[in-house]
Amino acid sequence: MTAYALGNLRPPAVPHDEVLSYMERIQATLDPYGGRFLVHGAPAREVREGTWDAALVIIGFPSLDHARDWYDSDAYQELIPLRTRHMAGDILLIDGVAPGYDPAATAAALRTARP
């Protein structure tokens, strides 16, 4: 099942050279794990609910195991400080939904499971 690495990043107005180096080198760490950028820091064009003041990053992987292996890899661990020394943020790994996912079926199961 497809999985994702999500980044909720708060970059400075002017990126530090180490952050630029991180950006230049990250794809090489993703390639062995089938990772590819789906969203890379684009500003939110329309905030429809709530507030948003961060840069969103979404990276897709073939599975959660691939995402974990990438994040835990020596190559990526070496890069992390280049970003974290200069940019606050939150990173999470999460499963996507299976093909054919039906939210109505999930709602029905939740209704059935209620006390």
Automatic annotation (TrEMBL):
One Pfam match: DUF1330
Superkingdom: Bacteria
Classification via SUPFAM superfamilies: Dimeric alpha+beta barrel (SSF54909)
Domain DUF1330: 16-97
Identification of the protein by name: DUF1330 domain-containing protein
Species of provenance: Streptomyces lavendofoliae
